Amino acid sequence: MFLGTHAPKIDDKGRVALPAKFREGLAAGVVITKGQDRSLVVWPAAEFEQYAARIREASRSDARARSYSRVLFSSAFDQIPDKQGRINVPSALRDYAGLDRDCVVVGNHATVEIWESGAWESYLANQEPEFADLSEEVVPGLF
């Protein structure tokens, strides 16, 4: 499980060093893709395979499913982190997420997200009050 918020820098070669506590869970390989809210998602390769299998079950006649699948898979890059735990963030993905030098790496349970620092701060500023005020069930059967 990936937890916490970290603030590494993107180096001149477009690489980001994953937090040390995330490295073991990502050492076997990752898939980095576009995520929602202009973030990037770093999937452990095995987790991405499971997610991809669920997407394959979607109806090919559903235009939204086709569109989602195309964008997700066409923007996906697989790689193995180097010995320092760095992954390359392809320029197309850096452009999509607005990444330059400062970024935030966020643990999100089974995946890791990479955000442009200002976008993450704005997201939290908008979402934390709503999170604090939740009074109804968000995840069915959980709370």
Walkthrough of the structure:
The protein has 143 residues and is α+β, with helices and mostly antiparallel strands. The strands form 2 sheets. Strands 1-7-8-4-3-5 form a 6-stranded antiparallel β-sheet, sandwiched between helices. The chain has a two-stranded antiparallel sheet with strand order 2-6. The chain has helices at 20-26, 45-56, 63-74, 91-97, 117-132, and strands at residues 5-6, 15-17, 30-34, 40-44, 77-79, 86-88, 103-108, 111-116. The two termini are 20 Å apart. The model has no long low-confidence stretch (mean pLDDT 93).
How much beta, percentage-wise? Answer: 15-25%
Q: H/E series, N to C?
A: EEHEEHHEEHEEH
> What's the pLDDT, averaged over the residues?
93
Oligomer designation: single chain
The count of DSSP E runs of length 2 or more, i.e. the number of strands, is 8
Identify the strand order in the major beta sheet.
1-7-8-4-3-5
Concise description?
The protein has 143 residues and is of the alpha+beta class. Helices cover 38% and strands 23% of the residues. The protein contains five helices and eight strands, in the order ββαββααββαββα.
Q: What attributes does this structure have?
A:
6-stranded antiparallel sheet, two-stranded antiparallel sheet, alpha+beta, 23% strand, 8 strands
Write the layout of secondary structure elements.
Elements: E1 5-6, E2 15-17, H1 20-26, E3 30-34, E4 40-44, H2 45-56, H3 63-74, E5 77-79, E6 86-88, H4 91-97, E7 103-108, E8 111-116, H5 117-132
Antiparallel strand pairs: 1-7, 2-6, 3-4, 3-5, 4-8, 7-8
